[in-house]
Amino acid sequence: MDNLTRRRFLALSGVTAAGALAVGATQVNWSDLMAAAVDNPLPSDQSVLVVITLYGGNDGLNTVVPAGDPAYQKARPDLAYEQNEVLDLGDGLGLNPGMKGLKGLWDDKRLAIVRGVGYPEPDRSHFRSMAIWQTASPKSPVPTGWLGRWLDATGADPLRAVSVEPTLPPLLAGETTAAASLPLRGLALPKGALGTAYAALGKPSPGEGHWQARAAKAVQDLQDATKVLGNAVRTGHEKEEDEDEQRTQGASAGGTSQLGAQLELIAGLIEAGVPTRAYSASLGGFDTHADERGTQQRLLTELDAAVTPFVQRLRKTDRGKNAVVLVYSEFGRRVHANGSDGTDHGTAGPVFVVGDKVSGGFFGEQPSLTDLSNGDLKVTTDFRDVYATVLRDVLGTEPAKILPDHKTTIDGLLRV
């Protein structure tokens, strides 16, 4: 988010003292994280939560598509997908054709789709709705994010949660503790002959003195860190060259691109044993009021191309196998298309939960397309049920400490 929308977001969320923490959060660098991995490595049996926010309000009906439902085809005559275009999931539903990798994870029982997720008395404002999702307080604004309260309840170390987004999202701001922030910058070393010569400086030599050995180790540590962080980010010049003019479509509600780079960085940190239990990443651009089909499918393809290799990579290590990915957006879209080949702000939508610890399949009831509330889908699953489940089964925390007065979870979603 830019500064203006961020301030507005904080004001509408009620994140006041916590918002100040978020703006001035602990910014760390690779050396802080690598030192923590050495001094206090993440136990290989501890689970890690990776939260991916899709900013803008992703259209759930064109993500998990009821292509065989006549009501869907009638509501979206030019926007609907046909049955032969989607990736069949059963139950009359199919994934958007841009999500072939996630379809493979579904087939492997490592993708769960929670249907009809939302909150009571929906608000169609991006900022208020996202504030509700990030604070987990649908009835009244509160000054902390739900993972920020988890930080408050379980210790004061900001490295237990890390955001790789440009700014720390309010979901990671607690009353007394805010997560650490590691913005993507990249880390590159020389290549070619110079790079070979530089690498040689990191090799220990017999009989070298104390300070020579320290210098060599510092060079080797830098090379090791580059393996973790270096390939994750392209340079700004490369990004400008690759910038697609479509990137600006649907981007009014904040968020960022480069999700693949964010997840590549997170994967490296998990594999290195950094003692972080929760990570935050994001993808923006889902505010698809016009020309939705091409824009959303491009974004969902980007989501797929980031999440699929991330999950496949992590399952090769003991620490990685315990990672769980949660993908959500602040609301779905209206059932009926508008007059600009797009959709307007709606209510309920699907939430994805991905990983080796996930019991794949459908959870929650599919909302009806004929029994609507003022033209919108009716919520069938409270979003706090998802949060309570990952708090309990991923982060090992009693949900009631974080989500007061909320007692329900989604049993069977995760294997513990």
Automatic annotation (TrEMBL):
The keyword Manganese does not apply. Keywords: Signal. Residues 1-22 form the signal peptide. Residues 233-256 are annotated as: Disordered. Pfam families: DUF1501 (PF07394). SUPFAM superfamilies: Alkaline phosphatase-like (SSF53649). This is DUF1501 domain-containing protein. It comes from Kribbella capetownensis.
